[in-house]
Design goal:
Structural class of chain B: alpha/beta
Mean pLDDT of chain A: 86
Largest sheet of chain B: 5 strands, mixed
Oligomer: heterodimer
Strand content of chain B: 15-25%
Distance between the termini of chain B: 34 Å
Largest interface: A-B, 26 and 36 residues
Distance between the termini of chain A: 12 Å
CATH superfamily of the domain at 65-205 and 231-256 in chain A: MetI-like
Strand order of the largest sheet of chain B: 2-1-3-10-4
Low-confidence stretches of chain A: none
Chain lengths: 262, 326
């Protein structure tokens, strides 16, 4: 009972804060504190959004963005989990790869734009390369950590019972790595969205990002902000979905149980 | 470094071409392969565009079915910058693209196999704009002041330099600042730059909302006859498919005649491929589309300008990079 009321309270406070933010967004341009030509009032952005919702190009772009994001995230997850379990389990591999990983990881994905365009042209694949490159790291590092975090007693027990490698990966490594993987996945999901839209904006592959560029080149400022709002909503929706998924798959885990007991 | 990039590009191109070979549309009308008036060798081409109003003639040709009339199925790929379209062109993803002449000539000088196939337009409202109280009244007043251009060493800074020199100033004294065109009006209003090389829709918007004035027409005086952009293909494609390129040009001729005769077509077409509202599209300045392409004159003019201001190191053999008859 107490839990639901706190949860409701949190939602109410969140909504109030956001409403105040929107009010500010409406008032700043209206009062002339910022030039409405460059930051139109929130109501104008919403009017532009309403227009966008009736255009098939907008829905096609939204579909392209979500598709690129999903494919990129799927590739990054499969790659990250497979490599992570391998590297996490084999100490030698870990020692040999960590310097390379630490070198590659901080390279900003955006710096790869010229390379991607050279290889794939101004197409979806170029953006996909950026998305995969940026979002594979959080998954990989989390899975490596998770696999290394296997309870040593359990590991020794499994070894003395001569469990097969497959069984050990399934019964020990994977359950131990799962909470880490979920965290990695959630981080990767938002990074993938950022890179998907950045790629579209810079490379011109189809999607919301390219529409933002076209709106900007067309001096359609309210439309541009409407699209930015859409990008923000996408991120918000994504976080909510992943948090719910984490809660559902990890209901047995201490971190989730603690939250429920509070 | 440049050579290495080119090597990689060549490799990538080779791979891309090999990869495409299976799926590329084969010759369709080999029996009627005569002069450049014959049926197109390929039935489908992909054309690269940008979200700019001077592409209205092309989009009109698509919508009016002029390419279909020539036996050409045209797919359109809109990208966010000219250099990316040239990469896609060289990689074989697109066969013809809109490109500015300076980037095309620079690409050719670096060894890219580009071939110009048609002029597009001689521009319109483009020029150097300032706020009315800037104290800049003609091009020579830009000496010692800041001028925003989209890229140094490209169309905007070259035409500005030649205007300043022709007006009795010294172009080397102009301080060029690189800015994306959508940010120029704000930069002018906030005093970050003294002047800006602007094009539509920003020039029209700036004149109506901020009262900016044009102190020099980009295509006047020494730049008379130059234009911002044309159509480019690759030598391989143009050599292997002369009828296809000729068919593209004929469709463009028809569409160009239409938009010159009835500017209301432009106002209708522009909102379909940009986010310019129909009202704003109706107020855009007229564009001087080219009915009879003369790329020798066009490219010759640009080459002279580029050599003079160091945007090109050596002369390019123009005959080799212009589609016959264009």
């Amino acid at each position: 009972m107490r839990r639901t009321s706190t949860a409701r309270g949190r939602v109410v406070r969140g909504v109030c804060g956001f409403a105040a933010f929107l009010l500010l967004l409406e008032l700043l341009p209206r009062t002339g504190v910022v030039n409405p030509a460059y930051l139109p009032p929130f109501s104008e952005m919403m009017a532009a959004l309403g227009r966008l919702l009736t255009e098939p190009e907008f829905w096609a772009a939204l579909g392209n963005t979500l598709l690129g994001w999903a494919i990129g995230l799927a590739i990054a997850t499969v790659l990250g989990v497979a490599l992570g379990i391998l590297i996490g389990r084999i100490a030698v591999l870990r020692r040999y790869t960590f310097s390379t990983i630490e070198f590659l990881r901080p390279i900003p994905s955006v710096a790869l734009v010229p390379l991607a365009v050279l290889i794939f042209g101004a197409k979806m694949q170029s953006t996909l390369l950026l998305v995969v490159y940026a979002s594979v790291w959080p998954v990989l590092l989390q899975v490596i950590q998770g696999v290394r975090d296997v309870d040593p007693v359990a590991r020794d027990t499994a070894r003395s019972f001569r469990f097969s490698t497959v069984t050990r990966v399934r019964r020990l490594d994977w359950p131990s790595a799962l909470p880490y993987t979920m965290t990695g996945l959630r981080l990767a999901a938002s990074i993938a969205l950022i890179l998907e839209i950045t790629g579209e904006l810079l490379i011109g592959s189809p999607g919301i990002g390219r529409l933002i560029f076209v709106a900007q080149a067309s001096a359609a400022v309210p439309t541009m902000y409407a699209l930015v709002v859409v990008a923000g909503l996408l991120g918000l929706g994504m976080t909510a979905v992943f948090r719910a998924a984490q809660r559902r798959t990890m209901h047995w885990h201490a971190s989730e149980r603690r939250e429920a007991a509070a | 470094m440049k050579r290495k990039t080119l090597g990689l590009l060549a490799l990538v191109t080779g791979v891309a071409l090999a990869g495409c070979a299976g799926g590329a549309p084969g010759p369709t009308g080999s029996e009627s392969a005569g002069a450049a008036t014959g049926a197109p060798e390929v039935s489908t081409i992909t054309v690269g565009t940008l979200p700019f109003a001077n592409l209205a003639a092309f989009y009109h040709a698509v919508e009016a079915g002029y390419f279909t009339d020539e036996g050409l199925d045209v797919e359109v790929v809109l990208a966010s910058s000219g250099p990316q379209q040239i990469s896609s062109l060289v990689a074989g993803d697109i066969q013809i693209t809109s490109s500015n002449y300076v980037s095309a000539l620079q690409g050719i000088a670096q060894g890219l196999p580009l071939e110009l196939v048609r002029e597009s337009d001689l521009g319109g409202i483009e020029g150097i704009y300032t706020l009315p109280d800037s104290g800049i009244e003609s091009a020579k007043d830009l000496v010692g002041r800041t001028l925003a251009v989209n890229a140094i060493g490209n169309v905007q800074s070259l035409t500005a330099s030649s205007l300043v020199d022709a007006d009795g100033g010294d172009a080397s004294g102009v301080q060029f600042v690189e800015l994306p065109p959508p940010n120029m009006l704000a930069a002018l209003e906030q005093g970050q730059v003294d002047a800006a090389w602007m094009s539509d829709p920003f020039a029209t918007l700036g004149m109506t909302t901020a009262g900016i004035v044009r102190i020099a027409d980009a295509w006047s005086g020494p730049n008379d006859g130059l234009g911002p952009s044309g159509w480019a293909s690759t030598t391989q494609f143009a050599d292997a498919n002369p009828n296809t390129v000729a068919a593209f040009n004929r469709a463009m001729d028809r569409a160009t005649a239409d938009v010159l005769e009835d500017p209301s077509i432009v106002a209708e077409v522009v909102p379909t491929f940009t986010q310019v509202t129909p009202e704003a599209a109706a107020s855009l300045a007229p564009i001087n589309w080219v009915l009879k392409s003369d790329l020798h004159k066009q490219l010759g003019g640009w080459q002279e300008l580029m050599l003079k201001y160091g945007a090109l190191d050596a002369e390019v053999d123009l005959d080799a990079v212009i589609f016959p008859g264009s």
